[in-house]
Amino acid sequence: MDSITHWKKAFRIGLNLNQASFSSNWKAGGVNSLGFNTLLNFKANYRKDLHSWDNEIDLLFGLVNNEGQGRRKTLDRIFMDTKYGRKLNKNWDAILSSNLQTQFAAGYNYITDSVGASHSSLISDFFAPAFITAALGFEWHPVEYFKLRLSPLAPRVTIVNNAQRFVTADNPRPYGVDPVGTTRFEWYAFQLLAEFNKAQIHRHIEPMLAAALDLGITPFLDLILTSPRASLQDLAETLREAYRWLRRGCEVGMYPYVIPFSGAGLARDPELVAHTIYAHRQVAGTDVAWDQPAKILPIDATVREVIVRIEQDFEKLLNDLQQHVAHLPSRVRSLVWILCSVPVLAEHGIAIADEREVRAELHARLPQARRAVAQPAAAFA
């Protein structure tokens, strides 16, 4: 915040290029692909006494070309928002706002017919639709990273350029707009808008975990080691922090990849198809069958290679330990993940922890009854 002008500004711009190529020897599946994502975000917020004025422009666009599918959009968003607020008390403001939402390019619905042929139909385009909303109401902001707008009066205009392009038997009024016109007015609409800023929440996690441990409460952390767009640095930091909090007394569970739920947006993201591993499912006694997304590998080839190697070493060491120990709790399994990651990431010049220290920590946490028998297995790394 500039103490003289009372403005706080932020600008982000990014371009992400990714390519996946699979040889005929790769048996886990995948599709060759080439794609990119780009973003531009600008915020300018004013604060003085009881008054505030927040402005944001958020632009996203991405394409992916999957082998056999052709070029498809992965991201497309134009969002502009301006909001005036007057402070009522610590957590509430009265607000007046206006925003615009639309997209850059044409959008299509893709379907596969009974013989396996793919077909597309136009469902959207630039300013088709576009939503312009004005809102009068209140904003609740109990913490820095969360805001909730409640606007009982939020008139909205829906614009659909050349609406006749989208008319079908099942959809005679695209986006509620009469195809002979271009606009639809909703005078008494209600608007509920939530904003969750993940960039602000991270610094609240550590004191919360520390406070719980001080009170004798054992927090349980479920961690995914890699996301589809994770970097090696992301993986390393997750492992370091997991080891730190595990030694302080937290229970930690680890999973190497994102496992999408049925119907999850990640499972339908065209950019991630090439990196998704599927498991064939069938209802017993019927012909009902489908390919279920089982896990999504990292897009980055180096990260993908590293986490696959760590997983292979983890499975080998875990199998050795289970020959001697009946049950391994989450904290022990997590130490196995960390121990297996140390030499692999060291090859890339990234330090996680001292290998001897991690091995000693693992041995100390093995179930007491058969620890002596399991010691030779724990020496594997």
What does this 3D model show about the protein?
The protein has 2 domains: 7-199, no CATH class; 202-257 and 298-378, no CATH class. Strand 8 (130-143) and strand 9 (146-153) form a beta hairpin. The strands form 4 sheets. Strands 1, 2, 3, 4, 5, 8, 9, 10, 11 and 12 form a 10-stranded antiparallel β-sheet that branches. It contains 6 helices and 16 strands. It is globular, with a radius of gyration of 26 Å. It has helices spanning 198-214, 232-248, 301-322, 330-346, 355-365, 371-378, and strands at 7-20, 33-48, 51-66, 70-87, 92-102, 107-112, 118-124, 130-143, 146-153, 156-159, 183-186, 191-196, 220-224, 251-255, 276-282, 289-296. It is of the alpha+beta class and 381 residues long. 24% of the residues lie in helices and 39% in strands.
Helix-strand layout with pairing:
Elements: E1 7-20, E2 33-48, E3 51-66, E4 70-87, E5 92-102, E6 107-112, E7 118-124, E8 130-143, E9 146-153, E10 156-159, E11 183-186, E12 191-196, H1 198-214, E13 220-224, H2 232-248, E14 251-255, E15 276-282, E16 289-296, H3 301-322, H4 330-346, H5 355-365, H6 371-378
Parallel strand pairs: 13-14
Antiparallel strand pairs: 1-2, 2-3, 3-4, 4-5, 5-8, 6-7, 8-9, 8-10, 9-12, 10-11, 15-16
Helix pairs in contact: 2-4, 3-4, 4-5, 5-6
